[in-house]
Amino acid sequence: MNFSELLRMRRAVRDFLDDDVPISVIREIIKDSCLAPSAANMQPWQFVVVTGRDRLKRLSDESKANLLEDLEKNPNSLLRNYEAILRNPSYNVFYNAPCLVYIGGSPMVRSLNLDCALAACYFMFSAVARGLGTCWVALGSKIRNPGLLKMLKIPDDYQFVAPIILGYPRVIPPVPDRAGPRILSIIE
Fold it and tell me: In the chain, where are the structural domains located?
C-alpha cells in the first residue's frame, strides 16, 4: 500500500477478531515506532505490552473507577460526557482487544507528550501496514493501583501518554467526513 492508502486505512478500530497478535509482530511495530522524531533526539518513550483479555479487563475496570473518582472531585470535568458508559459494568474501555500497548515515559522530559504522540502515530501506521487495527484509548490511562502497576512493571516515574489497543480488525470503519485545510496564510 502506498502512503496515501496507509493514511486512509488508519482508522480507530474498536471491534477485533479473537486472534492474538504474535509478540514478534508487536516487537516489529514497536521498532518502527522508535523511528519517530523526538525533541533533541531524546527518544524518551517506553513501551509496556499487555496481552490477554482478562488482564485488559482488570486494567479497564481500574481506569474506569479512577476516572469516576476524578469526576466526583471535579463535577465540571469533560469526563461528564463519559459518565454513563464509565458506570456501565460491561463497558470495557479497551473494547475487548487482544493487546494493549502503553507508550509513556518520564514526566521529567518536557517534550514527553509530543514525543510519545509521534511514536504513537508511527505505531498506528506500522500496525495498519501489517493488516492490524488500533485505537488510542485515552480513557485507559488512569492506572493507580500499586498491584497493577507492579504487574505492568511500571517505574515510579512513568507517565502514561498513549494507551493503544491492537488487534486484527473485524471491520475497518469508513473514513469520516473531514474538513478541508484551514490555512491561515501563505506568505510568498
Answer: 3-53+96-167
8 pLDDT tier (thresholds 50, 70, 90): confident
Stated pTM of the model: 0.95
Q: In sequence order, which residues have a C-beta less than 8 Å from that of residue 4 and are 6 or more positions away?
A: none
CA-based torsion, 79, 84, 87, 92: positive or negative: negative
Give the model's pLDDT for residue 7.
87
CATH class of 3-53+96-167: alpha beta
Question: What does the alpha-carbon distance between residue 79 and residue 84 come to, in Å, rounded to a whole number?
Answer: 10
Strand partners, 164: 101, 136
Give the Cα separation of 152 and 34 in Å (integer). Answer: 21
Q: State pLDDT tens for residues 125-151.
A: 999 999 999 999 999 999 999 999 999
